[in-house]
Amino acid sequence: MTAERAWVTEEKSGRKAKKQHNESTILVGSKNVMSYVLACKTLFDKGASEVSIKARGRLISRAVDVAEITRHRFMKGLEVKDIIIGTTTVKTDKGSDLNVSTINIILAK
Question: Which is nearest to 4 in space by CA: 24, 25, 28, 34?
Fold first, then answer.
């Protein structure tokens, strides 16, 4: 299973259940950085007081880029409220467990 796949928290009866995210969450994937920066700016412009930027595995550096570009180039009044790092266990296609690093960057006005 690659890091670009959807955020999966558990398996139930052979189906993968996706974790619920609120409207002010951006899940970083394989799009370019500016797509996520624009999404972040749009959420703040619509009135969100906080935006959560989440990524896993190799995409963690892209999430950091999104947060920093948003803060320094587009919305200079933002601050990093919290950074949460962790590890998620994911089942591979062969059935073994794979540890994948995660990050959640919370930006606030």
Answer: 28
